[in-house]
Design a protein that fits this description.
Length: 114
């Protein structure tokens, strides 16, 4: 039986500035395209783009349900949506407060900086 340590409250509520950052220019081409589409309001290639992201992993700052939305970053040669996503925060989809990139299906995040 494996024991899993709960994150302390400070870690769960840490500001997004505590996350590593990645320059938009360093993202894969597909991620830059997805980021642009987010700011343009679409259209998006996947039906699930824009759905609420639940933050069950608690790696992003704690916010009420509905604060985060996820978007697929296509993975070349993948037969499904792949593992790459951009998750954006805020109530105004085309003007997100912050966006985060994950290449490993929510195991880690980096804040996107322009």
């Amino acid at each position: 039986m494996a024991l899993v340590a709960a994150l302390p409250v400070e870690a769960r509520d840490a500001p997004s500035a505590a996350l590593p950052s990645i320059a938009l220019s360093q993202l894969p081409d597909e991620a830059r395209t997805t980021y642009r589409l987010i700011h343009e309001g679409g259209p998006f290639p996947f039906r699930k783009d824009g759905v609420v992201f639940g933050n069950r992993e608690r790696l992003l700052p704690a916010r009420p349900r509905g604060h985060y939305h996820e978007y697929t970053v296509p993975t070349p040669r993948s037969r499904d949506r792949g593992a790459r996503r951009i998750v954006c925060a805020g109530t105004r989809p085309v003007q997100p407060e912050a966006c985060f990139y994950t290449s490993d299906h929510y195991a880690s995040f980096s804040r996107i900086v322009e």
